[in-house]
Amino acid sequence: MSKATFHSKLLPYGLLAPTFIILIVFLFYPAYKTFQLSFYKVNPFSGAAKFAGFYNFQKIFTNPVYLRSFGRSAIFALGVVFVGLMISLLLALLLNQKVKGASIYRSLLIWPYALSPAIAGALFNFLFNPANGLAIYLTGIRTWLIEPNLALFVIIMAATWKNLGYNIVFYLTALRNIPKDALEAAELDGAGPIRRFFSITFTFLSPATFFLLVMNTIYAYFASFGLIDILTEGGPANATNILIYQLYKDFFVNSRVGYAAAESLMLFMLVVLLTIIQFKTTEKKVFYQ
Fold first, then answer.
1. 80 vs 206: which has the higher pLDDT
2. CA atoms 234, 237, 242, 248: torsion sign
3. DSSP 8-state symbol, 3
4. Rg from Cα positions in the chain
5. Distance from C-alpha of 66 to C-alpha of 68, rounded to nearest angstrom
6. Which domains does the chain have, with CATH numbers?
7. Residues 245, 251, 257, 259: is their CA dihedral positive or negative?
8. How much is the pTM?
9. CB 242 within 8 Å of CB 80
10. Peptide bond into 236 cis (omega under 30)
11. pLDDT of residue 284
C-alpha cells in the first residue's frame, strides 16, 4: 500500500492552520487570560486590574458558600455518574434483546441527548413546578423544587435523564461487539445469567464503562449549567448551587472577575485531578480486546 505524500512541505501546515487558529482563539487564549486574571483583583466599573497574588484563592477556600457548593457538586456528580451509568447499562441490556419494536424503543431513549440542557430544564420545570406540575398530581408532593434535598434530587434526575442517550449508544455498541462464543461457552460450563454478566459481559464492557465514567464526570461538572439555570437557578437556599453555577453568579451577577477566574481554574484542576485518579485506579481493571 502506497503512502500519501504532500508535494509541498507547507501544505500540511496550511491544512492544519484553521484548526490551530480556532484552538488558539477560542481555547488557549481564553485559558491563558483566565489563568492570568485569577491572580488579579479587577474593578468591575473601570476594568482596572491590580495584582493580588493568591488573594483570590485564599478567599475561595475561606468562603463558606463556595465550600458548600463544592460539597453539593460532589453529591451531584456522584449521582449523575453512578446512577446514570447503572440505569444506562440496564436499559442498554434490555434494548439489546431481540424484541419487536426494539428500534423504536432505542430511538425514544436516545433522543433526549439531542435536547439542549435548557430545554431539558424547561421540561422538568413543567413536570415539577410547585404551582401546576404534573408530578404534583402523581405524587401529592408540592415541594419538589422548594425543599432543598428534593430540589437536588430533581436536578440529579434531570441531568441523568438528559445524558442517558449518550451512555446507551456506547453501551449498545459495546454489547454488539461481545463475542457470542464466549457467552455460549460460559453457558455450556454451567454459568448462570448473573455469573455470565459479571464474568463475561461486564468484562468486555469495561473499556466503554471507563470512557463513560470520565465523560460523565466532565459532563456533571461542566455541562449542567443551562439545566440548573432554567430549573432552579441554584436554589432553594443554594441547595442546587454547584460549582459551575457559582462560577456564573460570581462572574456575571456579582462582577467578581478575578475571583471567578480563580474559581474557573480550581474547577478545571479539580476535574483534571479526578480524571487522573480515574486513570490511575480504574484503567487497571479495563480489559481491552
1. 80
2. positive
3. P
4. 23
5. 5
6. 67-285 (1.10.3720.10)
7. negative
8. 0.87
9. no
10. yes
11. 66
